[in-house]
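PROTEIN DESIGN WORKSHEET
SECTION A - STRUCTURE
LENGTH: 305
C-ALPHA CELLS:
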C-alpha cells in the first residue's frame, strides 16, 4: 500500500480545530488554541466544535461534515482535534474516504481519535499523527522535548530520530508501517468494516485506567481475531493507570509475556506516547524500526512532504 504524506506546515499556516468526538469546554479550548497560535500558526475553530448533543460535540452528521469540510477547504493546512473522549467511531460510516484521499492534510489527535487516524491510513492512504490534542496537552502544557518533537514532525517531517522505552518482553528487530493507538478503541472495531489491518505492521498499543484483567481480555480478543499473528512487532505505551492497585508492573508484564509467548517477533513496553507522561507524537503510516535489544523505535522516513 502506497501512502501519501501530507504537506508540511509553515509559519502562518491555518490550522482547523474540530471536535470529532466528545463535547469540549470552551475555556479549555480557547487556551489550547492560544497555545497553537503562540507556535506561529493561525487557528480556525470549526463552527460545530463547541456544540453539544448529549455527550457529543454535535450530531454525527455535524461532526462528519465539519471534518470533511476542513479537509476540502484549501485554506486549511492542518487539522487538530480539540479532544477525544468518545464518538469518533460514530462518524466513520459518514466519511467519504475517496475524497479524503485527494486532499491529505496533517491530522493530529489520539485516544478515541485512534479510530480516525487508522481509518485514514488504511482507507484514505495518508500518514496521520497520533499525538497531543488542543484542549488537552496544548491547553495544559507538555514537555519542551515532546513539543519540539511535534513541531519538527509538523514542519519538516522529522522530530526525534528515535524514542526509547525501558522494557523488553521479546528480543528482536523488525521494520514495518506504524499503526495502532488506544487498545480499548481498537478492540471496538473488531467485526466492523473498520477493523485494523495489522499484517506486517509495527503495532503500537496503549491505554489508560484499565485494570490488568481488562487488558488481558482485550489482548486475548485481538489474538483470537487473528490481529496479533501477522504483525512484524508490537510496542506498548506506558499504560498509565493500568498496572493494578499497587502500581506494580509485574502483573501486566506477565500478562503480556504470556499472550505473546507463541510469537517470535519483538515486543517492547513503555514507549512515552499516548495517555500519561510526555505523549510524544507518532507518525502513523510511516515505516519505523522496532529494536527491543537497543530498546527504541527508530523513525525511518519523514512524516510530511
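SECTION B - SEQUENCE
RESIDUE ASSIGNMENT:
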Amino acid at each position: 500500500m502506497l501512502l501519501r504524506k501530507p504537506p508540511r506546515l509553515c509559519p502562518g499556516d491555518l490550522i482547523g480545530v474540530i471536535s470529532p468526538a466528545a463535547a469540549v469546554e470552551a475555556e479549555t479550548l480557547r487556551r489550547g488554541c492560544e497555545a497553537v497560535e503562540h507556535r506561529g500558526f493561525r487557528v480556525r475553530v470549526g463552527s460545530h466544535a463547541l456544540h453539544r448533543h448529549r455527550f457529543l460535540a454535535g450530531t454525527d452528521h455535524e461532526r462528519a461534515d465539519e471534518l470533511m469540510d476542513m479537509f476540502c477547504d484549501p485554506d486549511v493546512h492542518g487539522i487538530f482535534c480539540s479532544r477525544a473522549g468518545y464518538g469518533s467511531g460514530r462518524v466513520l460510516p459518514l466519511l467519504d474516504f475517496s475524497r479524503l484521499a485527494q486532499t491529505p492534510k496533517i491530522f493530529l489527535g489520539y485516544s478515541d481519535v485512534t479510530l480516525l487516524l487508522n481509518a485514514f491510513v488504511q482507507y484514505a492512504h495518508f500518514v496521520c499523527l497520533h499525538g497531543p490534542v488542543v484542549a488537552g496537552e496544548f491547553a495544559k502544557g507538555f514537555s519542551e522535548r515532546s513539543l519540539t518533537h511535534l513541531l519538527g514532525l509538523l514542519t519538516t517531517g522529522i522530530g526525534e530520530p528515535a524514542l526509547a522505552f525501558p522494557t523488553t518482553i521479546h528480543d528482536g528487530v523488525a521494520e514495518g508501517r506504524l499503526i495502532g493507538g488506544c487498545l480499548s478503541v481498537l478492540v471496538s472495531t473488531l467485526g466492523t468494516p473498520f477493523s485494523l489491518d495489522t499484517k506486517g505492521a509495527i503495532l503500537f498499543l496503549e491505554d489508560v485506567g484499565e485494570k490488568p484483567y481488562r487488558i488481558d481480555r482485550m489482548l486475548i480478543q485481538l489474538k483470537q481475531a487473528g490481529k496479533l499473528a501477522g504483525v512484524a512487532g508490537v510496542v506498548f505505551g506506558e499504560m498509565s493507570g493500568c498496572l493494578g492497585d499497587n502500581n506494580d508492573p509485574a502483573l501486566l508484564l506477565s500478562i503480556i509475556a504470556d499472550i505473546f509467548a507463541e510469537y517470535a517477533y519483538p515486543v517492547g513496553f513503555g514507549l512515552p506516547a499516548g495517555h500519561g507522561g510526555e505523549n510524544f507524537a507518532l507518525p502513523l503510516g510511516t515505516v519505523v524500526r522496532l529494536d527491543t535489544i537497543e530498546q527504541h523505535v527508530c523513525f525511518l522516513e519523514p512524516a510530511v512532504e
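SECTION C - NOTES
Residues 151 and 159 are 7 Å apart (CA to CA).
The longest strand covers residues 173-182.
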